[in-house]
Amino acid sequence: MHALLWVLLIGCLQEEEAPGKAGAGDDSGGPYLTFYEDYDGDGFGGEAAEGYEVPAGYVELGGDCDDEDPTVHPEADEICDHVDNNCDGSIDEDVLLALYTDNDGDGYGSAPSGEGCEGLSGQVTNNDDCDDGDDTVYPGAADSCDGLDNNCDGEVDLTLHTGELSEDAATFCDNTCSGSIDGSIDLNFESGDIDFSCVVDVSGHVQANSGGSLTGLDFSALRQVGGDLIISNNPHLGGLDLSSLDQVGGGLTIQHAGALLALDLSSLAEVGESLSVSGLDNLGELDLSSLSLVGDTFAIHNCDALSALDLSSLRQVEWVSVHVNDVLRSVALPELGEIIEKVSLYKNPALEDVNLSALESAGTLSFDSNDALIQLDLSSLQSGGSVVIQKHGSLASVDLSALSSTTGGVYIQNNNALSSIELSSLVETGGDLSIEGNALCDEDLNYLEEVVCGGTFSLDNAGACP
Q: In this structure, which of 74, 80, 126, 196 has its CB flanked by the most CB atoms within 10 Å?
């Protein structure tokens, strides 16, 4: 009996296989598998086992480097969290963030502090704080009247007033901070010195027409005016500070301020409509060195003490008018390539030098009665409307060597000293071609009879021919 029990026990042991081992001569018919315990249920296992069937809690995919975290497995996206999320042996590869120190704890940083992951104490992923020592200053903070750029937008832009400002102008900026006017400023019939140095922007217009008693106007912080800026009829205005003015959306007019000696518009880049400076009898200095665009007319009239007009940055304008400036000696427009409407230089008796070296096209060119002008170089001009050069007492030479056609007439008349003119490229005029009353030799200009002329051709000059 004991022997029989022993035989049965040995047979049972031979049929039973220990987990993870293959039995010799097994007749189950299935493939022998390797599988992995998936403790965290993410589809990937860690510890391997073997058998003919994948038991519950096991999977056929291994490689899980942390089987207690379902967000960690070989197909996970790597994120910046100090963990090897995708089990490739590297931590936070290609996902490290640029970090910046947040000294004041307002959620915005300034100085770079290296690379790392978001959430570190005292570190943030932006450098947008314009004052990292003040936790009330950061992007999105409310502006307050404290002289600070509270919201880091580059401006101390508190709205100081809404609507039209006309009363209490003389004391408006007393004990206040810088800011904007959401509206307009009218300073008609104000007197004395007016301090508007607290105003940075005006959405509407600015007008000052005192009728005689305004002596000073301080707009030293003003950068933009949405509408017109008009300073007019202030004969005793001796001080006008617009040195920060960058842009005028409408027109800019400064006129009839005989006491004004200098005008600093060195920051002015754009005027949406016309720019006019006139009737400033004692204006000796005018700085327009940054002016690049005037939407309509640029005019300098009756500024009897102004000796030089430098518009070296001006590239776009509809009309240029420089009239009756008694001591003006030079006008420089070296970057201006096109004038849509007109260039007019009239009765500037001391004018000696005109620089239009880049001008290729113009609606109308008119040079009239500039007695000191000796030579006129328009050698880049290729086409135009009308060309008028007349009544110059000293003008000796005119270079229009590139001019090929005009839609209007060409009038070169009554320039008593003009002995040299170059028009060798001219083939067509839309109007008259008149060269008369100059010191030119008519025989040298007979070739112009071949020009296709839309009007009459006239040639009558008093110059001796060689």
A: 196
Same domain, 301 and 169: yes
Two tokens at 319?
């009309």
Is a pLDDT exceeding 80 seen at residue 2?
Answer: no
Residues 6+ apart with CB under 8 A from 140: 151
Query: How far apart are alpha carbons 39 and 69 in whole angstroms?
Result: 9
Q: pLDDT, tens digit, for every residue of 430-448?
A: 999 999 999 999 999 999 9
- State residue 29's pLDDT score: 57
pLDDT tens figures, 96-140: 888 899 999 999 999 998 888 877 788 898 999 999 999 989 998
The model's pLDDT over 139-187, given as tens digits with 9 standing for 90+, comes to 988 877 766 788 898 876 677 888 888 766 778 888 677 888 999 999 8
Which range of residues forms the domain containing residue 286? 157-306
CA distance 436 to 389: 11
Give the pair of three-digit tokens for residue 78: 């790597």
Question: Token pair of 126, please?
Answer: 């932006």
Task: Provide the 8-state DSSP code for 158.
Answer: E
> Which two three-digit tokens encode residue 132?
């990292």
**In sequence order, which residues have a C-beta less than 8 Å from that of residue 75 and are 6 or more positions away?**
44, 86
Beta bridge partners of 364: 342, 386
Secondary element (H or E) of residue 8:
helix 2-15
Burial class (CB in 10 A: 0-12, 13-18, 19+), 254: buried
For residue range 332-368, list pLDDT tens digits in order: 999 999 998 999 999 999 999 999 999 999 999 999 9
Amino acid identity, residue 368? D
Q: Among candidates 98, 180, 102, which has minimal Cα distance to 134?
A: 102
CA distance 438 to 109: 74
Please state, in angstroms and rounded to a whole number, the distance separating the CA atoms of residues 367 and 415. Answer: 11
Q: Tell me if 339 is assigned to some domain.
A: no
